[in-house]
Design brief:
The structure is a homodimer of 203-residue chains. Helices cover 57% and strands 10% of the residues of chain A. With 203 residues, chain A is α+β, with helices and mostly antiparallel strands. Chain A starts with a strand and ends in a 6-residue tail after the last helix.
């Protein structure tokens, strides 16, 4: 019998959505448990490291969103075929995580500093990364790694899905290869269906 | 013929040392290229994502330190034996990266805020993580995962090796299981030899 999957996270995309994309892509049924902010303090001590998302697979619990995505990628056929390809996938994901951390730093910055930080982010940080990532997709035939769909592509599209809400603009709009990649992922039948039917969340 | 390995990084431990531990553990000869700060602006545009460390394996270049460590773990016999064990290793490493990011934020904070941030770090952030990690090592027979040495253990010991210099104190001093684990790694013959013979760097 297949194990049961349960994802516990806030009612937002953020760190949860890449996991939800992976599960949706693999047609894996899962309980999509969404915790209201006010219930979190009570639940926090019961999670492995006081953090969410947490994925339960049968009786076992996992934490750390990227580690969970990598695990699921192996179950749903989105991992690399050898060690070097996995390294390229991993380093792409880690680079996208660097962008996501910069976005989180922006969101949680003191109000007085936000405007200045946003300017640096828009003019320096984001173009620095996105120019290189756009070039990488161009060189890899429309995907991040070796001309084929991997979890690096799904992770990126899910990150953009959430980031466009945080940033109030789609950050890949002016990067043609990244934009085409995100559209390609969003048009995968199961991802399209997931995005059309998922709970509405603001970020 | 085995490929040649070349690691390019600053003359510090920080993000480079976990990679150096992995190479030393596997008895892999490598060129340990250390770039003076003043040479970095010229080199930066030639690196894959404007960042170091970069590991060259033969003609191929890799970036992102954790991705590189995971790749090397497979070469030197420190990876997990199945997907779930690898997930536990990965989530441990990602948790230690969260600590390292908190330390970096502290180091690069504005002078005016450092004292207050250090207090929060010492009284809240660090105990929050280290209590849980110490418990994890206790539950896993003196290692992070499943009573055996994995790259999560080497990565942690290398991170502490550098963090103790940043923090001017050994952060695991009061955590008996973590301290024993770090000592165990530092006493592995090849790590012991690496630490005794490596170039002296301040952090």
């Amino acid at each position: 019998m297949a194990p049961t999957y349960k994802l516990t996270y806030f009612d937002v995309m953020a760190l949860g959505e890449p996991i939800r994309y992976m599960l949706a892509y693999g047609n894996i049924n899962f309980e999509d448990k969404r915790i209201p902010r006010e219930s979190w303090p009570k639940l926090k001590p019961k999670t492995p490291y006081g953090k969410m998302p947490v994925l339960e697979v049968g009786e076992k619990k996992a934490h750390q969103s990227i580690s969970i995505c990598r695990y699921l990628s192996k179950k749903v056929g989105l991992a690399g075929i050898d060690d070097w390809q996995n390294l390229k996938i991993d380093s792409t994901v880690d680079t996208v995580v660097d962008i996501r951390i910069a976005i989180f730093n922006l969101v949680f910055a003191p109000e007085s500093e936000k405007e200045k930080m946003r300017e640096t982010f828009d003019k320096e940080t984001l173009p620095f990364y996105l120019n290189r990532l756009d070039e990488q997709v161009k060189e890899n035939g429309g995907f991040f790694v070796d001309k084929k769909l991997t979890w690096a592509d799904l992770h990126f599209a899910a990150t953009i899905d959430s980031a466009k809400e945080f940033l109030k603009t789609n950050p890949v709009e002016d990067y043609p290869h990244l934009k085409a990649l995100v559209d390609k992922v969003w048009n995968l039948p199961r991802i399209k269906s997931w995005r059309a039917n998922r709970p509405v969340s603001s970020i």
